[in-house]
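User: We ran a pulldown and think these components assemble together. Before we commit to crystallization trials, I'd like a predicted model of the whole complex to look at. Sequences follow.
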Amino acid sequence: MKKLHRRSFLKGGLVGGAAIAAVGTSKHAEAAGSFGGYPDSMGVLVDLTKCVGCRTCEAACNKEQGLPAPDKSFDDPSVFEEKREGGLPRRTTEKAYTVVQKYDVPGREHPLFRKVQCNHCNEPACLTSCFVNAYKKTPEGAVMYDPTVCVGCRTCMVACPFYIPAYSYSSAINPVVKKCIMCYDTRLKFGKPPACVEACPQEVMTFGKRKDLLKLAHQRISEKPDAYVDHVYGENEVGGTAWMYLSDVPFDKIGYDTHLGDQPIISYVKEFLAIVPMVLTIWPALFTGFHLLSNRKDGLKNEDNKS
Amino acid sequence: MGGRKKTLMGMAALMLLTAPTGAQSWAADGPDTVELGSLANHYSAVTFDHAMHVGVAASCAECHHHTTGLAPTDPNCVRCHEAGAQAQSVACKDCHSDKRFSAEDLEKTGGNPQLYHKGKPGLKGAYHQKCLGCHTTMGGPTGCQDCHTRNDQGDAFFHSGKYAPAPKASGGHGGGH
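Assistant: Here's a predicted model for the assembly, 484 residues in total across the polymer chains.
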């Protein structure tokens, strides 16, 4: 009879285990990747060709969210010239959940204005990166944040591909993450559009079901193919976002990251993350077992010596 | 002819009676002015000089699309709307909802697969897109307060005028530590 060696036994076990793990993770990845957002979630289509840079949306956001007074009046166009480190235009802060940026595009008759706020991803990177589950994607489409459970690690700020969450560094006692919540608690959950959408005089933003907005966006492009680039930013980027954009200038020329890919950020780390629970639960028991086995002989020897 | 003059006078009187809603069905003549007061919470009403714009615009269809009996100027619109009979109403507010994005509006626009004009702007959007669009190309006024006089509530909303933030002493905005 063939003797079963310890080495071959371990080898077989490893191969088998790896196979099971591989099958398990691939199945898991498929299931999680199929989530394309809530079917009836709401969204906003932003037509950048229509924005005139009046900043009424910023004023409306400030009022609706009860934010502190701004550093400059909301009708002061000098903010467009403000630059932060690296010559980059201004971004969202703890005091401003939305900001309008100005781009002087060569060859374009007028400057292009771009409204920046949380894009409310279908599968948000902030949500998946948060280890205390402070974030929630509501069926209406808003990405919400719960400051009561937040521990202030700011991983969400690193994870966000759009650099949106801001941090209340001004608060020494209870600093929290601050970002656009799509006016969820005051408007969206009652079926009303966000305050910025309603305030915009040009109706740059169209509010509606995300699936309806996608049809509208493609209809606009096909009706006026010369007025738009043939791309709806946010349709597929990072798995799709609730806020989507139409432009007459290629998106990479006006500060949009066009290299984000169509996969939700979570899918890049999903396979690694699937191993984490296994490492945390199986490895301690396994190696404790090895340790006890290898020390068993010594224990027995000690007992022998005693007797 | 005296008869026509009288009719016009009568129409003008009627217009005064029906102001500030203005923009009734006015046959080919139209009202001289229209009061636009839907942004009353931040701005005083705008008195739109319709008569002046009639003189400036190449055709009524520049603003009224296909409703005045003339063919629209946008080639995309001409695909369906040719010159035809005048519509029952030529008033902006009768087609462009002042309750855009309300539940009823979303049901009407999003819920109907047969509807072509899904993205028809609301009243405020229609005004601004038409007015500003033309003013930009024709060299008309384009600043908010060139047309609208802002009221006290509006000043508070924009943190402007007497509500303007005090200038910062150190000017340390975004300037590091």
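Chain B has a mean pLDDT of 80. That may be worth checking against your pulldown data before setting up trials.

User: Thanks, that helps.
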